[in-house]
Design brief:
Order of helices and strands of chain B: HHHHHHHHHHHHHHHHHHHHH
Shape of chain A: globular
Helix content of chain A: 25-40%
CATH superfamily of the largest domain in chain A: P-loop containing nucleotide triphosphate hydrolases
Radius of gyration of chain A: 18 Å
Number of strands of chain A: 10
Strand content of chain B: under 5%
Number of helices of chain A: 9
Number of strands of chain B: 0
Largest sheet of chain B: none
CATH topology of the largest domain in chain A: Rossmann fold
CATH class of the largest domain in chain A: Alpha Beta
Distance between the termini of chain A: 29 Å
Strand content of chain A: 25-35%
Low-confidence stretches of chain A: none
Distance between the termini of chain B: 37 Å
Structural class of chain B: mainly alpha
Oligomer: heterodimer
Largest interface: A-B, 51 and 45 residues
Order of helices and strands of chain A: EEEHEEHEHHHEHEHEEHH
């Protein structure tokens, strides 16, 4: 589903934000991506989403290169950044319809999915409000609904649980599991290690732009907790 | 006072994005920064050059009539009116409803310090225009009039003082406007309507004064006419003139007192109402409870255009800044329809006799001012990630932005060209150019705006005014539009050649094709580099 091959991204000439990173996400994977602040998680996710250029390496989505076929790649995925600045001048429903129009979601699927996800996130009554009047958590929910509305094959999420209330976080986790059970894949960054440990079947740890551990959760962490492993690796690596 | 200076430093550092440019580390960003800085400097030089030219021409004329001091009054009046209008536009965004309101207000600083620092940043921005208009006038006056020594320090003092009053009056009017429209459902459109009325009201008053000045029976002589015009429209400009030309202590005191009084009034009033007004702006009304019904769906192109048009209409400063050109166009065409004879009579200069040949170029200049594209990429701001992450090509994105300008421009051009053609009783060929040239200008300047803005984006703004009014791309577009409109008009006036219209038309078409090709070729790469 997602193949990152020797990805390198430099800022300011020589500073490598991501250094020779390779990683594969298979259909059905819920792949967690953890690391300190500034380790390179967001840069990697933005490069995969096709919104940030990179210096070397390649990224393939279902066999298509994001550098060469960005539109085809984007058609199959959805991306939510850590701070979703949405169009404040639109109402929630206008924004969702805009995204659905861009992805060419049929009228039937659109109605059904908006109802399903907006009801689950308890957003339906507020979809006529301007996004500018919504709280951070509500904006996050609208962004999540917009990401799910076209049934993406690959979902990229940067810190998706920040700002969500406990019920919405629980709802999101169940949708993530459901999406992957249907053959899609999720690659997401988080600082909540307990969530990553329970939710993900695979995990990658990044430090100073380099991948220091990656693979199936059980194999990577062994008998230790993810938190212990993370602290050991990031302090010693 | 310490709080005020700390906050002011923060505000002023973001003006024109200079602090960001100075601290860029990424090579690509540095390149964009240098380009933006270079274009800003070039624009300042160009504006300065034009100001010197106008001041010199006016000074020569005034000297002939032995009324050289009127140069100071007229330039002070022009400068103050410009600043007044800019300040009204800037109030919402700089003083109210600014992006970092929550964080600034959480600091242990007084409300008066916050409010006054923001008014001061408006003053600093306006001072650039005051400097460019007043300094050449002051220097040319000094060369021609050889005033006593006290003139020089007094001129410097008054040059700094003069922009304060229209900034504060503009901020007060802008505040009234913001309060009036804050709770309206269509607050942006209401704000646009009131701002348009204010701007055209000012223009009407100035034209009325101009007409009074034309009537020799009403006013005894040329000097009195000019002075009465300045005095009637804006007494502080007259005080500025008499302070510098006569050393009038009363005028200096009036200027100082009026400025100090209005500053005190504004700061006192804002201290009591700043939080109330900002809270009112921030608390947007809730929509009606949404009930899920069958949703309409549209094509990708329609969705992109609709998003773009809604974005345009949501920002009053964006609309006023661009729609002004089209409103002016239709008013000018209306005047030509109703009073073409009088206009022809009024413009008795020999080079202006061929009005039907000149009007398409003047209309071309007006539509070039109305192009929405030069700040349309900057207006994406922090939401840019959305369009970059969606399956939308750069060309589709550009086309949606172009359509906004064309939707506004084409009907305006068709209406105004028809009115002008009837009013001026144009021949078939003249009528053809009346339609074709403004249309060529609008296509050309819409593409030019995009071509510039993708090279000089200003995305991390805190208020829309920064994106709309302080962008290098917009300034270049406005200046090039002015040059491309007036240069052929002057050439026609001088030569009367019938070849100028087809040459300019072909030039505009070729420019449009070349710039569009360049945009399509490098669009994806440039779009990816934007952040």
């Amino acid at each position: 589903m997602l193949s990152i091959e020797n990805l390198t991204k430099c800022y300011g000439g020589n500073v490598k934000a991501v250094d020779d990173l390779s990683l594969t996400v298979m259909p059905g994977d819920i792949y967690g991506f953890i690391g300190h602040n500034g380790a390179g998680k967001t840069t990697t996710l933005r490069a995969v989403a096709g919104i940030l250029s990179f210096d070397s390496g390649d990224i393939h989505i279902n066999g298509k290169s994001i550098a060469k076929d960005p539109i085809e790649c984007k058609q199959q995925m959805a991306y939510i950044p850590d701070n979703p600045d949405l169009y404040e001048h639109l109402t929630g429903i206008q924004y969702l319809n805009f995204v659905a129009d861009i992805y060419g979601v049929s009228a039937f699927d659109r109605d059904e999915r908006i109802k399903k996800y907006a009801d689950a996130f308890e957003m339906t009554p507020r979809l006529n409000d301007l996004i500018g009047s919504c709280s951070h958590g509500m904006k996050q929910k609208i962004a999540l609904i917009s990401a799910l509305i076209h049934d993406p094959k690959l979902l990229l999420l940067d810190e998706p649980f920040v700002g969500l209330d406990p019920k919405a976080a629980h709802t999101l986790k169940s949708f993530m599991t459901e999406l992957c059970a249907n053959g899609s894949a999720i690659f997401f960054s988080t600082h909540v290690l307990e969530v990553a440990e329970k939710l993900c079947n695979k995990i990658a740890i990044i430090k100073s732009g380099r991948l220091i551990a990656a693979g199936e959760m059980d194999k990577v962490k062994g008998d230790e907790s993810l938190e212990t492993l993370f602290l050991e690796l990031t302090d010693n690596a | 006072m310490r709080e005020f200076w700390i906050l002011t430093k923060l505000q002023v550092s973001s003006l024109f994005g200079i602090n960001k440019i100075l601290h860029m580390k990424n090579e690509e960003e540095k390149k964009i920064g240098k380009r933006t800085l270079g274009s800003l400097i070039a624009m300042v030089v160009a504006m300065g050059y034009m100001s010197v030219f106008y001041s010199y021409m006016l000074a020569r004329a005034f000297k002939m009539f032995d009324t050289l001091p009127s140069l100071l009054g007229i330039m002070a009046l022009a400068c103050s009116m410009l600043i007044l209008v800019f300040s009204i536009f800037e109030t919402k965004g700089v003083l109210f409803g600014f992006g970092d309101y929550d964080i600034v207000m959480s600091w242990p600083v007084s409300i008066r310090a916050v409010a006054s620092s923001r008014v001061f940043s408006m003053y600093t921005y306006n001072f650039v225009y005051a400097f460019l208009l007043l300094l050449p006038a002051g220097v040319i006056y000094a060369i021609m009039a050889a005033p006593p020594f006290w003139y020089y320090p007094l001129f410097l003092l008054l040059m700094f003082l003069l922009p304060a009053l229209p900034t504060i009056v503009g901020a007060l009017l802008g505040t009234v406007l913001t309060v009036m429209t804050a709770r309206l459902k269509k607050s942006s459109l209401a704000s646009v309507a009131v701002q348009m009325v204010l701007v055209f009201g000012l223009m009407f008053v100035s034209m009325r004064s101009g007409m009074a000045f034309e009537d020799p029976e009403k006013l005894a002589g040329f000097a009195n006419a000019i002075n009465a015009q300045v005095q009637g429209m804006y007494p502080p400009a007259q005080w500025f003139q008499s302070a510098l030309s006569e050393g009038s202590l009363t005028s200096i005191l009036w200027l100082l007192l009026m400025t100090a009084a209005t500053i005190s009034l504004l700061i006192f009033w804002l201290g009591k109402n700043f939080v109330i007004i900002n809270s009112r702006i921030k608390s947007k009304p809730r929509g009606e409870t949404f009930v899920m019904q069958r949703q309409m769906h549209s094509s990708k192109a329609t969705a992109l255009f609709s998003r773009e048009f809604k974005r345009y209409l949501s920002s009053s400063i964006y609309v006023v800044n661009t729609a002004f050109g089209y409103v002016m166009l239709i008013i000018a065409a209306g005047v030509l329809l109703v009073k073409a004879e009088e206009v022809l009579k009024y413009l008795e200069m020999p080079e202006l006799t061929n009005l039907p040949a000149l009007v398409p170029f003047i209309f071309g200049w007006m539509v070039s001012m109305g192009s929405t594209t030069a700040s349309s990429i900057s207006m994406e701001g922090k939401s840019l990630w959305i369009i970059k992450s969606l399956p939308v090509s750069a060309s589709e994105w550009f086309v949606a932005k172009l359509k906004v300008t064309l939707v506004l421009a084409i009907p305006s051009i068709l209406i105004s060209a028809t009115l002008a053609a009837i009013g001026l009783r144009m021949s078939l060929m003249e009528t053809l150019w009346m339609y074709l040239l403004p249309l060529a200008y609008t296509f050309s300047f819409s593409v030019f705006g995009l071509w510039l803005n993708i090279r000089m984006p200003h995305l991390d703004w805190q208020s829309e005014a920064e994106a709309v009014k302080q962008g290098g791309a917009l300034m270049i577009s406005v200046f090039v539009g002015m040059g491309m409109g007036f240069a052929p008009a002057i050439l026609i006036g001088l030569t009367g050649s019938a070849l100028i219209a087809p040459i300019v038309f072909v030039l505009l078409v070729v420019m449009t094709i070349l710039m569009w090709t360049s945009l399509v070729r490098s669009g994806e790469e440039r779009m990816l580099k934007l952040h």
